[in-house]
């Protein structure tokens, strides 16, 4: 009976978790103030797992936002706000980032992200009525990843959108994605928004919005979006948003750097990856049917 | 106070390993652990305790829905094998999926973060491999361990999948999704695969 392989596998996995957890720290950050405003790094399009198709729980999302240096997130589950409420409850208790309650309405001709709403929007309404309802609740409506397949769906409401995603992870995946998002944004006066549309792969805040707000409250953040006081950095560091604020940020230098975090794994990250994968390979190998070891009790016939 | 704490601890561990609860839980827990590790690596590039635990919680519905499907079949067939051991044997059929998740983790470690979206289409396409393999393995299980004939084994595999897969998918997509969203999900999957194939051919 081979007990060495599974024991070694468990040891490797434990070592990997020890190393990975030791490196897993919330980055130290100084608050940024520019032009009399507090500059907040925000991600307005995220998904959690409990009642939506994300990989992290609402509270896991809040913790991850802290680790990714975000000051605010909108939790935008598909057609539900329960996850956002759970996330906000948790974040208030731990002194975490500002959590805005939102939802994504994934209709076939258009996806709208509603941010800072109080209840879910009736999905049977047409897009104009949906946006009117979002505004009635005091929230803002953002065009989610408005690529060419969604342009027709947004035609009736181009002048009513509060924000449009001009930076979305698709710009790193498809050659023409950045140009398409720019083309859409030029046809609307909506605020430039950068969002990760995080479901679990990639990084929360991979694309982020720098909001120039009076304070860190949800109300102030939404007011900033309505006033178009946002700056977003897209592919190759191209800046979008309020021209005066872009100049201010460029002169200061901190925002362009903060917008492009270095995701290169550190040496300890690589150690954690190698040890962990090796440990899991050992565990899966040991657990194959008919294989003896801690995964198979001696009393169970093979 | 035990005279030999190390031996006492060792005896306790052995007893735990032989307990029915451990036999019942170990392979579903392994599946949950692999899923949690995949979440941690996909979201952060490292194995961090908070993300592994969070991922295990998020994806607990997968082993639970598989267990629910199997429990129904077990109740209908009532084989001589105790439930805990039957579950343990059945979940061994998940091995192809565990290897598949390991392959995903290796890909997520190697591919730059900004291009992680490109993993999605290959992930979907290659999922056919564990889907097909686990059907073969589970058919053998229902035949050899549960004592069913070939036709009965195939029926039991289908029954288990009919319970487990819709329950898992419905929970994952979310209770607020409509049947239209469910259909559109497959349209999005098709478009994602088509875009990836176009890009690389």
What does this protein structure show overall?
The complex is a heterodimer of chains A (302) and B (201). Chain A has eleven helices and eleven strands. By secondary structure, chain A is of the alpha/beta class. In chain A, strands 1, 2, 3, 4, 5, 6, 7, 8, 9, 10 and 11 form an eleven-stranded mixed β-sheet that branches. In chain A, helix 1 (4-23) runs antiparallel to helix 11 and helix 2 crosses helix 3 (82-94). Chain A is globular. With 201 residues, chain B is an all-alpha fold. Chain B has one domain (5-199). Helices cover 80% and strands 0% of the residues of chain B. Chain B has ten helices and no strands. Chain B has helices at residues 5-18, 20-44, 49-58, 61-77, 83-91, 95-110, 120-126, 128-144, 150-173, 179-200. The longest helix of chain B has 25 residues, at 20-44. Chain B starts with a helix and ends with a helix.
What is the CA-atom radius of gyration of chain A, in angstroms? 22 Å
Number of helices of chain B: 10
Number of helices of chain A: 11
Which whole number gives the mean pLDDT of chain A? 92
Report the β-strand fraction of chain B as a percent range.
under 5%
Instruction: Characterize the overall form of chain A.
Output: globular
Sheet with the most strands, sense and barrel status of chain A: 11 strands, mixed
The tally of beta strands of chain B, per DSSP, is 0
Average per-residue pLDDT of chain B, rounded, comes to 88
How many individual domains of chain B? 1
Q: H/E series of chain B, N to C?
A: HHHHHHHHHH
Structural class of chain A: alpha/beta
Distance between the termini of chain A: 11 Å
Biggest chain contact: A-B, 63 and 63 residues
Helix content of chain B: over 70%
Q: Structural class of chain B, please? A: mainly alpha
Low-confidence stretches of chain A: 290-302
Helix coverage percent of chain A: 25-40%
Calculate the terminal CA-CA distance of chain B, rounded to whole Å. 70 Å
Rounded Rg of chain B: 20 Å
């Amino acid at each position: 009976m081979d007990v060495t392989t599974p024991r070694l596998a468990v040891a490797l996995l434990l070592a990997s978790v020890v190393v990975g957890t030791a490196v897993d720290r919330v980055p130290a950050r100084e608050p940024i103030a520019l032009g009399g405003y507090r500059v907040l790094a925000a991600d307005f399009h995220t998904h959690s797992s409990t009642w939506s198709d994300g990989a992290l729980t609402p509270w896991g999302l809040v913790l991850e936002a802290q680790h990714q240096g975000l000051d605010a997130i909108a939790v935008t589950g598909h057609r539900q706000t329960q996850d956002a409420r759970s996330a906000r409850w948790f974040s208030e208790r731990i002194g975490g980032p500002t959590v805005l309650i939102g939802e994504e309405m994934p209709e076939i001709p258009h996806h709208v992200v509603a941010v800072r709403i109080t209840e879910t929007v009736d999905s049977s309404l047409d897009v104009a009525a949906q946006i009117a309802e979002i505004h009635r609740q005091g929230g803002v409506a953002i065009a989610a990843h408005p690529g060419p397949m969604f342009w027709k769906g947004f035609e009736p409401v181009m002048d009513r959108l509060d924000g449009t995603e001009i930076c979305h992870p698709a710009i790193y995946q498809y050659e023409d994605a950045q140009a398409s998002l720019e083309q859409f944004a030029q046809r609307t006066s909506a605020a430039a928004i950068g969002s990760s549309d995080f479901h679990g792969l990639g990084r929360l805040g991979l694309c982020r919005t720098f909001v120039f707000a009076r304070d860190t409250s949800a109300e102030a953040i939404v007011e900033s979006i309505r006033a178009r006081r946002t700056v977003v950095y897209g592919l190759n560091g191209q800046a979008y948003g309020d021209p005066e604020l872009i100049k201010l940020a460029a002169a200061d230098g901190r925002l362009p750097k903060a917008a492009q975090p270095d995701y290169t794994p550190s040496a300890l990250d690589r150690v954690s990856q190698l040890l962990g994968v090796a440990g899991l390979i050992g565990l899966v190998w040991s657990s194959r049917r008919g294989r003896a070891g801690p995964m198979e009790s001696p009393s169970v016939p093979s | 106070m035990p005279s030999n704490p190390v031996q006492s601890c060792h005896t306790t561990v052995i007893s735990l390993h032989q307990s029915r609860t451990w036999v019942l839980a170990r392979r579903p827990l392994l599946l949950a652990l692999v899923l949690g590790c995949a979440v941690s690596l996909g979201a952060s590039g490292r194995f961090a305790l908070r993300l592994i635990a969070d991922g295990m919680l998020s994806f607990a519905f997968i082993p639970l829905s598989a267990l629910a499907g199997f429990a129904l079949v077990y109740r209908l067939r009532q084989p001589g094998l105790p439930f805990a051991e039957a579950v343990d044997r059945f979940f061994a059929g998940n091995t192809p999926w565990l290897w598949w998740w390991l392959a995903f983790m290796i890909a997520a470690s190697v591919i730059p973060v900004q291009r992680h979206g490109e993993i999605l289409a290959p992930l979907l396409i290659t999922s056919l491999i564990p889907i097909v393999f686990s059907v073969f393995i589970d058919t053998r299980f229902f035949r050899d361990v549960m004592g069913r004939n070939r036709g009965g084994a195939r029926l039991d595999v289908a029954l288990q999948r009919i319970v487990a897969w819709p329950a898992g998918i419905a929970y994952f997509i979310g209770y607020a999704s409509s049947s239209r969203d469910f259909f559109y999900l497959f349209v999005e999957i098709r478009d994602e695969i088509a875009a990836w194939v176009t890009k690389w051919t």
